[in-house]
Write a structure and sequence with these properties.
The complex is a heterodimer of chains A (520) and B (473). The longest helix of chain A is centred in the last third of the chain and has 38 residues. The N and C termini of chain A lie far apart (57 Å). In chain A, 35% of the residues lie in helices and 10% in strands. In chain A, helix 3 runs antiparallel to helix 10, helix 5 packs parallel to helix 10 and helix 10 crosses helix 13. Among the domains of chain A are: 61 residues, no CATH class; 240 residues, Type I PLP-dependent aspartate aminotransferase-like (Major domain) (Aspartate Aminotransferase, domain 2, 3-Layer(aba) Sandwich), CATH 3.40.640. With 520 residues, chain A is of the alpha/beta class. In chain A, the strands form 3 sheets. Chain A has a 7-stranded mixed beta sheet with strand order 1-7-6-5-4-2-3, with helices on both faces. Chain B has 473 residues and is of the alpha/beta class. Chain B folds into 3 domains: 66 residues, no CATH class; 116 residues, Aspartate Aminotransferase, domain 1; 267 residues, Aspartate Aminotransferase, domain 2 (3-Layer(aba) Sandwich). Helices cover 36% and strands 14% of the residues of chain B. In chain B, the strands form 4 sheets. A 7-stranded mixed beta sheet of chain B has the order 2-8-7-6-5-3-4, with helices on both faces. In chain B, strands 11-12-15-14 form a 4-stranded antiparallel beta sheet, with helices on one face. Classes of the chains: A alpha/beta (520), B alpha/beta (473). Strand 12 of chain A pairs antiparallel with strand 9 of chain B.
Chain lengths: 520, 473
């Protein structure tokens, strides 16, 4: 770490106004097609087709801006966005911020992808359906499971598909009213608790013991004839792999319930461990995490859902089938849970995932995981050498990420995870992910150095953490005053986050609530 | 293939010297040793049965393009498909911004590092709020169907009731998604979803049926504007009054591109509004361009409190006159309270908020007005030309925006047959409504937007005439 120096990073700072403040009446950003004179002569004005009761009386108060000024505004805002491509984004653990190849974006922009309508005749969508079908086969190999639905619009959506499939499975056996509970673990993603709750189930959450994962006895005590299913992330968000996972599944199965594993952290186990081999009935993958589709400011995304043959009849419609010559969309599935998303999935996201897998092949996929865990263990060693950084739980072996604790730093210097985060970003790394709520690990930080990052990147990230630690112990006020090098100064008035009179979700609300109050 | 190959361009530390040095540093002999916690019997042996690798980017691109070449796009053929995903023109400046590396690659970077992204999201919410005439707008998630279902759930929590009324003219895919979210009758949290008939002559909601079905147990009345069938609900304000008289929430699903001509639903009494941003500058991408939004009144904090989507508020900074944007009431979401949160929220349609914000800026108030005028008049021109074909009539009256029902039942041909024949003319005919609307058997939903010129429409009319009259299918 000796040779690694923190950068003198300065973000762009444009003092860019809000678009709503930039209006000059009369200006416009683009001309739209106008109706032809022949049509004008033949077809009455718009108002004659719109009942007066729902006709717009006042034009919407949108800004009026010329094209260059509009473009410049958004380009400046893009410069005030670090994103992942420019950042050292080891920071966003559990998110698997891997490089998303640019050639995929080019493919998605081709008219044969971008200008497809989902209701076109199947024979004109054979390429799109082939992409869905071929990627289905890849996920069958990676998970060991039998069938796949690519309809989920994100990881949490796939978790909801599971809750709905489990619901339909028990209903088909007449056991639904009795089986009204799901079990998850505290270090599983919040959606593993929230999705079954939305689907109408009570949720029991198992807590980790001193090893870092729930003991089998705790599961045995929670499982009963009321259990419908279990949803567990493994490895969990701590990076800990539960070595007794197959015995967990056995206990669940003995009770007649179904077991799902959330594979949000699958980047560590591609070609290494399959959901099927641990006995799981179903799992999911985030194509925008493990499979390289870009995160796009939080979507578009896809949550692929994989399951056994036994659960396949319950999958959402349609299912893509192949008769050896032609691909089809099969809607005729009487036991299906129905629809979870309009049409049949996020095809461009699947296209990117397929292209990524094809580029890597079987050895490459395995290499992705091996390097991801190597990177993590290397970074772990560097970070644990930093004063004030500790790693909770007796299980010291971690796969793709580590949930570190800054409790010691907080106690000794007053600098905890949030203060750490706001200073570390001044060195040109993305804001470190702390933890989902509740913070079971005190003062948590969770970096995830996936295969994208070079040794130099890892060293740099560790050095920025070491720099914040040195400052915390030597000049804590400097850390408390951070950030310094960002597009905006330190935020204030955070009570607005919770107070109705103070929050303003939109500019019109702000004008009405805040500005009016401020003016005499 | 040599071992060198596996120094893949996406994996820098695959370089053997680097790998060895790093393994030395952590005291392991091989990367596989790190997998110790996974018991041997759970380890997958051998190689995954997956295709690849395709060695070079050039070959990969060519391969993927060869698959995409099996698609026929709406640029290749003339398309009149709508029904929840629409072909509108996307200005080049929208694509320029959406394809910026910073936006396309950003995720959960926080308020300082990704300040620009947060500002765009606030601008998206602010612009949509002006179109909708409501003060609260949540960040986009998946699609209209999902947010319609989540809006119904929100209304049930607000009212403490569990029955909802949904217009029979609402999108069948959307309602199907909403039904999955309402759950089956066996679960205690089940929401009973009942449909309200529409007038077969005009497409308008049947208010007698509404009055007959609504009660003090009704949590919400949901209509669409324009409806899935394209019609404009002229008595929306009256529906709002009926809903409110019974203590129910009035929810309107809206296609925002219509709002240059149509009033914002907030102005006629909507409590909650949902819809899709796809029509606002997002390519169709086979349905990948969808992004659902929820908007609501903010005169009562219960709406924000019960909205499951992420909400941002404007804040100040220590520098005079400078704004920041941060997530508010974070605890109420599934991220804050897990199973005790409001339904769930997750990664959804972030980039399409960027696209729609740029789009709304470029169009401005005049653009929305003019675009609406072009769309509605071209759609009516198309309806007129099609209605001139023997045996063909336009269903549901004249109050429609960009979509309208064409009734082919008098032609003796099925919509499926007609659409197959239209493919021969390189035209995607309107979506067949026979399966989803038994009362509209052998009817099709045609969609006309600003991308369709008079010539395109004349070409469609000629092709239909040829298919129905000359070729006889």
């Amino acid at each position: 770490m000796g040779q690694t120096k923190v950068r003198g990073y300065r973000s762009a700072r444009w003092d860019e106004p809000i678009i709503m403040e930039m209006s000059t009446p009369g200006e416009r950003g683009v001309f739209v097609p106008l109706v032809e004179p022949e049509i004008k002569g033949e077809i009455a004005e718009a108002s004659s087709y719109i009942p007066a009761s729902v006709s717009r009386q006042r034009p919407p108060a949108l800004p009026e801006i010329s094209q260059h000024q509009a473009l410049r505004h958004y380009l400046r805002l893009s410069q005030q966005t670090m994103g992942m491509d420019l950042a050292n984004d080891i920071s966003e653990g559990t998110c698997t911020m891997k490089y998303s190849p640019k050639v995929h974006d080019e493919l998605c922009r081709l008219p044969q992808m971008a200008e497809l309508h989902p209701l076109q005749d199947e024979e004109t969508l054979q390429g799109a359906l082939q992409i869905l079908y071929e990627f289905r086969d890849i996920l069958r190999a990676i998970s060991g499971l039998d069938e796949v639905s690519l309809q989920g619009g994100g990881g949490a959506h796939a978790a909801f598909i599971n809750a709905a499939v489990v619901r339909a499975y028990h209903a088909s056996r007449g056991e639904l009213p009795r089986r009204d509970e799901f079990i998850t673990t505290m270090f599983s993603h919040p959606c593993d608790a929230a999705a079954p709750a939305t689907a109408g189930f009570k949720v029991i959450t198992l807590m980790p013991d001193e090893m870092g994962y729930p003991p089998l006895d705790q599961l045995k005590a929670a499982v009963s004839e009321r259990t419908a299913g279990v949803m567990i992330t493994n490895p969990e968000d701590t990076g800990i792999y539960n070595p007794a996972i197959d015995r967990f599944v056995e206990v669940v199965h003995q009770a007649g319930a179904l077991a799902f594993t959330d594979q949000a952290n699958a980047n560590s186990v591609l070609g290494i461990a399959r959901a099927r081999d641990a006995g799981f009935d179903a799992c999911h993958f985030n194509l925008h995490k493990t499979f390289s589709s870009p995160h796009g400011c939080a979507g578009p995304a896809a949550g692929a859902y994989c399951c056994t043959q036994e659960l396949a009849p319950f999958l959402p419609v349609p299912v893509v089938t192949f008769d050896g010559r032609t691909y089809h969309l099969d809607y005729d599935r009487p036991l299906s849970i129905g629809k979870v998303r309009e049409f049949y999935g996020n095809v461009p996201v699947v296209l990117r995932a397929l292209a990524w897998c094809l580029s890597l092949g079987p050895r490459g996929l395995r290499e992705v995981s091996e390097i991801a865990v190597l990177n993590n263990n290397y970074l772990m060693k560097k970070l644990l050498a930093i004063r004030g950084v500790t790693m909770p739980y007796e299980e010291r072996r971690r796969l793709d990420q580590v949930r570190f604790s800054l409790r010691q730093m907080k106690e000794e210097t007053g600098i905890g995870c949030h203060e750490f985060q706001e200073r570390q970003i001044d060195f040109g790394v993305q804001s470190v992910w702390t933890s989902h709520h509740p913070f079971v690990v005190p003062e948590p930080i969770t970096p995830e150095p996936c295969e994208t990052y070079s040794r130099e990147d890892l060293d740099y990230w560790a050095e920025t953490a070491a720099q914040v630690s040195r400052e915390a112990y030597n000049e804590p006020d400097k850390v408390l005053g951070a950030p310094y090098n960002q597009p905006i100064a330190k935020m204030k008035g955070l009570e607005a986050l919770e107070e109705h009179e103070r929050w303003a979700i939109t500019w019109r609300a702000y004008q009405r609530k805040i500005k009016r109050r401020a003016s005499p | 293939m040599t071992d060198d190959y596996f120094i893949h361009p996406y994996i820098p530390n695959a370089v053997p010297e680097t790998k060895r040095a790093m393994l030395r540093e952590i005291g392991k002999a091989s990367a596989l040793d790190i997998y110790e916690p996974i018991p041997q019997h759970l380890r997958f042996q051998g190689m995954l049965d997956v295709p690849g690798p395709i060695h070079s980017e050039a070959e990969l691109k060519r391969h993927m393009k060869s698959i995409l070449a099996k698609n026929v796009s709406c640029e290749d053929y003339l398309s009149f498909l709508g029904g929840g995903c629409w072909q509108h023109y996307v200005p080049a400046a929208v694509d320029e911004v959406v394809n910026r590396a910073e936006f396309i690659s950003a995720y959960d970077g926080l308020y300082y590092t990704d300040h620009g992204k947060q500002q765009v999201k606030f601008e998206y919410a602010s612009q949509l709020a002006e179109l909708l005439e409501l003060d609260g707008v949540g960040l986009a998630l998946y699609d209209w169907g999902t947010v319609a279902g989540l809006s119904l759930r929100m209304a049930c929590r607000i009212t403490g009731r569990s029955q909802v009324l949904v217009a029979a003219s609402a999108g069948p895919e959307r309602v199907a998604v909403a039904r999955t979210l309402c759950g089956p009758a066996e679960v205690p949290s089940h929401i009973a979803l009942e449909t309200v008939a529409f007038d077969p002559a005009t497409g308008e909601l049947n208010l007698d049926d509404l009055r007959a079905k609504i009660s003090s147990a009704t949590a919400a009345v949901y209509i669409e504007m324009p409806t899935y069938l394209g019609t404009i609900e002229g008595r929306a304000a009256e529906i709002a009054v009926i809903a409110h008289m019974h203590g129910a929430q009035f929810i309107v699903g809206v296609d925002p591109i219509s709002l240059g001509l149509l009033a914002g639903p907030g102005s006629y009494g909507a409590d909650i509004v949902c819809g899709d941003v796809q029509s606002l500058g997002v390519h169709m991408s086979c349905g990948g361009g969808l992004g659902g939004f929820i908007a609501f009144r903010d005169d009562d904090p219960v709406y924000a409190s019960e909205c499951p989507l992420i909400l941002f508020t404007i804040l100040e900074t220590e520098r005079e006159g400078e704004y920041a944007f941060a997530e508010m009431m974070e605890e109420r979401t599934s991220y804050g309270l897990r199973d005790k949160g409001k339904d769930w929220v997750g990664t959804g349609a972030g980039l399409w908020m960027v696209a729609s914000s740029v789009y709304m800026t470029l169009l401005g108030p005049k653009g929305f007005r003019e675009l609406g005028d072009t769309v509605i008049r071209r759609a009516h021109y198309a309806a007129k030309r099609i209605a001139e074909i023997p045996g063909v009539r336009i269903g549901l009256g004249e109050a429609f925006f960009k979509e309208f029902v064409v009734d082919f039942s008098g032609t003796g041909k099925t919509v499926a047959e007609i659409n197959k024949a239209l493919l021969g003319h390189h035209i995607f005919g309107g979506h067949d409504l026979s399966r989803d609307f038994p009362g509209l058997a052998q009817c099709a939903l045609y969609c006309v937007t600003e991308v369709h010129t008079k010539n395109d429409i004349d070409r469609l009319a000629a092709a239909l005439r040829s298919v129905l009259v000359v070729e006889g299918v």
